[in-house]
Amino acid sequence: MKTVITALLMLFSLIARAQNGGQFFENNVIRIQYLGYSSGKHSFKVVNKQICEARIRTRAEQDPAVDIQVIANDSSVVQVSRLTPQTIIFKVKAETSCVSNPDMGWLEINTGTLSLPLNEDTKQQIQEKRGILVKLSRGVLTVTTNDNITYNQTVEVYSVNGIKQYYKSFRMNKNSVLDLHNQIRLGFNFISIRLDRDGIVNSYLIRSFY
User: Fold this and answer.
1) Block means of pLDDT (10 residues each) for the chain, length 210 residues?
2) Most buried among 54, 85, 150, 176, by the most CB within 10 A?
3) CATH 2.60.40.10 fits 17-113, yes or no
4) Does domain 125-207 correspond to CATH entry 2.60.40.3080?
5) pTM
6) DSSP H or E segment with residue 182
């Protein structure tokens, strides 16, 4: 009996947290996704998961709440103006619903805890150490060395949730060029590059940013 009571209390606790909102990016009514910062604006995608149109309330920190209408199984992009890409907290909650037992609590995203996906507009990134230059520019990854030694090179591209979505291992001499447009277009988080020569490994990690 004690075990049953404990299990019920845990279930009620989970339900309470879901209804209060603020812990999740998705519930059974809506979903939110941070798209990044560009030209003085943070962009958020708000998805209505229902089979009916919904009125959804949005709010960014101390800004006034703004209600939007999103048709069934569709989405809307909400932009929040800020002079700099500082961390902000963005919240949404459904004001109307047509599902059974809808979760009408707040959902929130803290942009400071997220890594942004790489895209084709990602700024150029350059890393150099031990005579090896690694550059990512407009979706093209270039690796250049200042010697004539052959390296075993491994390139891995990871998605936003940390899953390896692309892998390539090959031998290179002097330089290599990889076109990663197709991988980056899908929304990836970071790229791992490793150059191995006689057991000596040089590692590089290119993280996404806008």
Assistant:
1) 42 36 69 79 89 95 93 93 81 92 88 61 66 82 86 84 82 88 72 84 70
2) 54
3) yes
4) yes
5) 0.50
6) helix 181-185
17-113 and 125-207, same CATH topology: yes
Distance CA 202, CA 29 (A): 46
Q: In angstroms, rounded to a whole number, what is the distance separating the alpha carbons of residues 183 and 153?
A: 18
Q: What is the pLDDT of residue 132?
A: 83
User: Concatenated DSSP letters for 4-45?
Assistant: HHHHHHHHHHHHHHHHHBSS-SB-SSEEEEEEEEETTEEEEE
Sketch the domain layout of the chain as residue ranges. Answer: 17-113, 125-207
* d(C-alpha 197, C-alpha 201), whole Å: 6
CA distance 50 to 100: 11
Residues 55, 48 contacting (CB under 8 angstroms): no
Torsions phi, psi for 17 (to 5 deg):
-65, -40
